[in-house]
Design a protein that fits this description.
Layout lengths: L9 H10 L1 H23 L16 H5 E3 L3 E3 L2 E3 L2 E3 L7 H5 L15 H26 L1
Antiparallel strand pairs: 1-4, 2-3
Helix pairs in contact: 1-2, 2-5
């Protein structure tokens, strides 16, 4: 499984908590939603079809990707994004770095690569949401 960790300036959070705790809650939920939606969009992209291929794409792999509701945990907040193996049982051989079949390497992006490439964008989502919440508090 691939994870993204987000770093937040503790002073800004403490200030926001003191002034408007509900705004921080909204900013965190919005950030998680932004990041998960961004990740889903990346994972649902299909590479160009191979020249001469007669295969008709069903978009089943696309439909297998979803996001669970955002929940509060004992350590903070969590959103889980994943591909349902019941819908697309071949998902790992297409989009998992450890299990990707050779034919898909270099063509299909893996979840791990997407996490690595998305981390800085997700951090920007968080920064923007926290700044907006502080400006309104």
């Amino acid at each position: 499984m691939a994870d993204i960790s987000i770093t937040v300036d503790a002073r800004a959070v403490k200030e926001l908590l003191a002034r408007a705790p509900d705004r921080l809650d909204t900013a965190i939920r919005g950030s998680l939603n932004d990041g998960a939606t961004y990740f889903l969009a990346k994972m649902k992209l299909y590479p160009a079809q191979r020249p001469g291929s007669r295969y008709i794409r069903t978009k089943t792999l696309d439909r297998s990707w979803s996001m669970r509701p955002i929940v509060r945990t004992s350590h903070g907040w969590q959103v889980i994004v994943g591909s349902n193996g019941n819908i697309a049982p071949y998902n790992r051989v297409v989009q998992s770095r450890a299990d990707q079949a050779r034919i898909h390497r270099g063509r299909w992006i893996t979840a791990e690569t997407t996490v690595e490439q998305s981390a800085s964008q997700v951090q920007r989502f968080v920064d923007a949401r926290i700044r907006a919440a502080m400006a309104g508090a």
